[in-house]
Amino acid sequence: MKYLRHSDSHNHTFKMIFLIMAICFTSACRDKTPEVELPHEVPPVEVDPKPKEELHPVSDMVLIYAGGAHRNVTWNRQYLKPYVTFTDEDGTEHWLFDGFLFLEFITGNSQLSTSRIFAFGYGSLPARKQEWKELADYYFTPNNAVYALEAAIAEAAARIGNPEKKVKVVICLPQPIPAGQGSRYPSVPAGYWGDINGKTLNFSNKADRIAACSWFIDYVSELFHKGNFKYAELSGFYWIAESIDETGDMLPDMADVLNRRKYTFNWIPCWKNSATPDFFTWKNHKFTYAYLQPNYFFSDLPLSRLSQACEYANKYDLNLEFEFDHNVLSAFGRTKVYRMYDYMDAFRNKNMLDTKKIAYYQGTDVLAQLYFSKDTDDNELYGEFCSFVLEHQTLHKLNRESSK
Known about the structure:
single chain, 404 residues, alpha/beta, TIM Barrel, two-stranded antiparallel ribbon, 11 helices, 14 strands, globular
């Protein structure tokens, strides 16, 4: 369905219904603060105080949920425009996000028997090779997603000149979910996923899980190479599971696979009320970058959660996620706009803007809705948020340059 900037009241209501449906299935961990205990305690990894040369560094990475049938959004060139550049009050146009994470965790509504999941925890059957392939193909459909991003950047470059560096693209890496006897899916055949070169894979075997993920990485790389993109660069992959579970033993091996291909391995763990949450020891799993979800926006949590998240970020060398959703929109009463400002204030006051990368969770497409809205409050909030992103980019760049 093509996105329309303005519509009559009937179409507006129709869009709101689909928006609500999409919101319900956007992220399990971001909708709640789970109590998860790890099976054993692992000592935290010490932080190296000396900065090292970074692989594909990104300052501000926006999450673009796309690929599920429940998404009422078409990520075409026009719809990606407000993510690529921002024009300030003086009429100066600036480059905005330097990283775009394309991700999805389910093929459609979790209530439908036909839906398949790309990670544990979303209520349907595990995705097979055909769904993994369809997701990758979707991201590289002409005039959509990555191709649309390239077109939007090219269009802006014609106006304001080329960006300083290529915009980084990160693609989600589906979780190979074990099935069969002894798994969470005992009624699903162990070889449900499919085969590679005639060999049926069984995800109870770590080697087969690594083989499936390696196949996906190679397939995405091939699709990206075919695009011959000038402004976008495939920089890495994102581990879609937000917690370390029974597939965690494969992560260091996957990191090695990605490192050999010069790709980053990214992770955005959800908050856990545990004495030893898995995000304390993210380096043990050899992720290149990890961004902690404060999860402050979604629950009735005290402001101290943001302070605690910043403290953990410093202590465990984590980056941070900035979170907001439809509750900042005028159409939904702007009931949580104040929490959006709380993130800005906390990240500023705790000096996160100088040293930390930030990933931005926006529901499905809330930032675009703020931009295209007829409501001036929405438009102003879009401008304030973008100014915050630019402020972060400036301070983060200065800090990186002074550390060299």
